[in-house]
Amino acid sequence: MSIDIIPFDVSCYSKLYEKFQYLFEEDLINEICKNSSLKKFKEDVLILDIGDKMTHIPLVVNGSVKVMREDESGRELLLYYLEVGDTCSVTMTCCTKPSKSIIKAISETDAEILFIPTELMESWIVKYPSWRSYVLDSYNVRFNELFDAIDNLAFNNMEERLINYLKDKVYVTKATRIHVTHFEIATDLNSSRVVISRLMKKLENDGLITQYRNSVEVKGVL
């Protein structure tokens, strides 16, 4: 993950320890502070693009990130979200040899992301049991989410996919009123704006949402 990064301030150790003591032992947190870098992103900023050189592993400290695939014609599909404590397993698969990204990552909300050099991954797996468990658990979680995305695409109709999408948005943003346009939803679901607009109107008529300009209020849990 080739990116212009800001050196991590070791004075932020207490903040990192508070967030990740449940994941990592203290010595590993110290190493993360010494070797990693932190960068802040505003909402809806491209963090990683397809074809970018993979040099760092991301660890989400605050906020959320959506991970997308894109075909040759530029059509996109939402795969999954990363939240606090999450990493992208796709970047971990690139640690044994130089690779380029096959996904794109965009900040879903304002976010802080810690970037860990990929060359440290293998030595940490041997040195720190918590890192080894974290890597294996991350693979498992991401693969399950990918299977969910495939199942959603293969077995659910567009209305069901839209409902699942809105549920996920509420979950990751921690708000029932989400700022999103019909065009953005269509892009994430690899659909057309006309189809999404029709389905959003149906959900509104069913009393499940209230639409505003560039935002939607999700009622209950759909």
Write down the Rg: 19 Å
Helix/strand structural class: alpha+beta
Largest sheet: 4 strands, antiparallel
Say what oligomer this is: single chain
Give the helix tally: 8
Give the structure's gist in a few sentences.
This protein is an alpha+beta fold.
Task: List its traits.
single chain; 222 residues; alpha+beta; Jelly Rolls; Arc Repressor Mutant, subunit A; 4-stranded antiparallel sheet; 41% helix
Q: Overview of this structure, please?
A:
The protein has helices at residues 13-20, 26-35, 89-92, 121-127, 129-155, 158-173, 182-188, 193-205, and strands at 6-7, 37-41, 46-48, 56-62, 65-70, 76-82, 104-107, 111-117, 177-178, 209-212, 215-218. It has 222 residues and is α+β, with helices and mostly antiparallel strands. It has two domains: 6-153, Jelly Rolls; 157-218, Arc Repressor Mutant, subunit A, CATH 1.10.10. The protein has a four-stranded antiparallel β-sheet. Strands 3-7-5-6 form a four-stranded antiparallel β-sheet, covered by helices on one side. It has a three-stranded antiparallel β-sheet with strand order 9-11-10. A hairpin with a 5-residue loop joins strand 5 and strand 6 (76-82). The protein is elongated, with a radius of gyration of 19 Å. The two termini are 37 Å apart. Mean pLDDT is 87; it is low at 1-5.
